[in-house]
From TrEMBL:
<dbReference type="InterPro" id="IPR023166">
    <property type="entry name" value="BaiN-like_dom_sf"/>
</dbReference>
<dbReference type="InterPro" id="IPR004792">
    <property type="entry name" value="BaiN-like"/>
</dbReference>
<feature type="domain" description="RsdA/BaiN/AoA(So)-like Rossmann fold-like">
    <location>
        <begin position="10"/>
        <end position="437"/>
    </location>
</feature>
<protein>
    <recommendedName>
        <fullName>Flavoprotein, HI0933 family</fullName>
    </recommendedName>
</protein>
<feature type="domain" description="RsdA/BaiN/AoA(So)-like insert">
    <location>
        <begin position="258"/>
        <end position="384"/>
    </location>
</feature>
<dbReference type="Pfam" id="PF03486">
    <property type="entry name" value="HI0933_like"/>
</dbReference>
<dbReference type="Pfam" id="PF22780">
    <property type="entry name" value="HI0933_like_1st"/>
</dbReference>
<keyword id="KW-0274">FAD</keyword>
<dbReference type="InterPro" id="IPR057661">
    <property type="entry name" value="RsdA/BaiN/AoA(So)_Rossmann"/>
</dbReference>
<keyword id="KW-0285">Flavoprotein</keyword>
<dbReference type="InterPro" id="IPR036188">
    <property type="entry name" value="FAD/NAD-bd_sf"/>
</dbReference>
<dbReference type="InterPro" id="IPR055178">
    <property type="entry name" value="RsdA/BaiN/AoA(So)-like_dom"/>
</dbReference>
């Protein structure tokens, strides 16, 4: 049995966003805390967040914030109620990190330097006596029949503990240290791990030569729609609003998987860019059960009829223009040749000689440019890991494991992932804070003060 007066410490596994804040909070409440980090220094992933600028959180109202996580966002109510954006930003402010808000409610340090965020979190912990041990990879969490008793390192050292916080992250960007150990450690203690999927990841297209020809082209104000069928079976339909997580239209009519308006990018293997990343997790899941195609509407502001009318006006104004010149008015230069080839219209045909069928083919290509998705890039290349420790096995108010007394879980190891915009880090910080507080309380440290 754990003696509540026993000052055997808290072990935190993982020095990422969740682990650093959990360690600091548990130590602030009087627990003796050791943070074990497998890499040579904590915060490796934090350093690359937001392209090195660290998008810490988002200014979205709570309801909107939670929808960025899809249905699993419900789990975060308790943690966000205890420690949310204002408390987080106040903690950073106290540690000398001022922040500013940007487009889309994204919050960044004024310094634009993710290292300041890492240093603030390390300083928060160290000021309360947290011992950070780098190069310390945990390979098992030890338990007896009552509760956790400690952890075993790769070096075979066993470190006793009264409580363990598992904050080892997901399985994406493994070079930062988050290589999936957290899932193995939780599973070994009986936790269910929901299937892992890449979240926020580019897509690989079958039509690789098109992607290569257009590599680097960024398309703005277009509509990208993913369908759960092959491209020949994409229904003829007009899509008027976004579908997908956080859009208010969570359940689109089949075969639509998601549809988003915004910016995307051609890469040498397929497509990336903001709206591609947003729909990638839904695409990854759909690929498990059948073919997935995408359609790009390059002129979403115009209906087919309106686009046809615009073409007719332009043709009348410049009757001698040939197909490439016509396309140049409508598309980025790099797409002209490959789109002209796809249209099936002879290159030398002048506007005055375009038939109704030619115009129809052109309108169809611009409104419904279709490709088949081969795959997503692998989990290692994803910004977040979707899936993970089943949430019903974790108490959302305390982050305590419902299976193993003394075990707490926080951050991306949980089956939580959100859109881009600072949501993922806020979830890691909030769940980490609550886990730190609960672990300290479990060991009989001071009652948590309301912050
Ligand atoms: C390129 C990129 C950019 C991103 N940008 C943003 C952004 O701007 N805003 C945002 O909200 N989210 C962003 N994210 C997502 C965000 O970084 C993660 O969701 C977040 O870091 C998760 O925090 P965590 O503490 O759970 O895990 P991590 O930050 O991954 O930390 C886990 C730590 O555990 C350590 N560890 C793993 N296994 C062991 C073990 N066995 N023993 C000891 N230590 C171990 C790891 O080395 C690591 O340091 C980005 C992700 C990527 C990849």
């Amino acid at each position: 049995m754990i003696n509540p007066s026993n000052k055997a410490g808290v072990i935190v596994i993982g020095g990422g966003a969740a682990g650093l804040i959990a360690a600091g909070r548990a130590a602030e409440l009087g627990a003796q805390v050791t943070l074990l980090e497998r890499m040579e220094a904590p915060g490796k992933k934090l350093l690359i967040t937001g392209k090195g600028r660290c998008n810490i959180t988002n200014t979205a109202p709570l309801k909107e914030f939670l929808t960025a996580f899809g249905p699993n966002g419900r789990f975060l109510h308790g943690a966000f109620h205890r420690f949310f954006r204002d408390e987080l930003l106040e903690l950073f402010r106290q540690k000398g990190v001022e922040t500013e808000n940007e487009r889309g409610g994204r919050v960044f340090p004024v310094s634009d330097n993710a290292a300041d965020v890492v240093n603030a979190l390390v300083s928060y912990g160290e000021s309360h006596g947290v011992e950070i041990r780098p190069n310390s990879r945990v390979i098992t969490i030890e338990r007896d029949c009552d509760a956790v008793t400690g952890v075993r390192l790769e070096s075979c050292e066993i470190i006793p503990a009264g409580a363990v916080i598992l904050a080892a992250g997901g399985a994406s960007y493994p070079a930062t240290g988050s290589a999936g150990d957290g899932f193995n450690l939780a599973e070994a203690l009986g936790h269910k791990i929901n299937p892992l999927y890449p979240g926020l990841v580019p897509l690989v297209l079958k039509e690789i030569s098109f992607a290569i020809a257009c590599q680097g082209v960024a398309l703005k104000n277009i509509r990208l729609t993913a369908f759960g069928c092959d491209k020949g079976s994409i229904p003829k339909m007009t899509i008027e609003h976004d579908y997908g997580r956080g859009t208010g239209y969570e359940k689109p009519a089949k075969p639509i998987i998601e549809s988003r308006f915004g910016e995307m990018l051609f890469t040498h293997f397929g497509i990336g860019g903001p709206i591609t990343l947003l729909m990638s997790q839904a695409v990854a899941r759909a690929l498990d059960s059948g073919p997935v195609s995408i359609s790009i509407d390059l002129k979403p502001a115009l209906s087919n009829k309106e686009l046809d009318a615009r073409l007719q006006r332009e043709f009348a104004a410049s009757p001698k223009r040939q197909l490439p010149a016509i396309l140049r008015e409508l598309l980025p230069e790099k797409m002209v040749e490959v789109m002209a080839g796809m249209s099936g219209i002879p290159l030398g045909r002048t506007a005055s000689n375009f038939t109704v069928e030619d115009r129809r083919a052109l309108v169809s290509l611009l409104k419904n440019l279709t490709f088949e998705v081969r795959s997503t890039l692998p989990l290692g290349a994803a910004m977040v890991t979707a899936g993970g420790v089943e949430l019903s096995e974790v108490d959302p108010k305390t982050m305590a494991s419902k299976l193993v007394p003394g075990l707490y879980l926080a951050g991306e190891v949980l089956d939580l992932d959100a859109d881009t915009g600072g949501y993922n880090l806020q979830a890691a910080f909030s769940t980490g804070w609550v886990a730190g507080e609960s672990a300290a309380k479990f060991l009989g440290a001071r009652e948590p003060k309301t912050s």
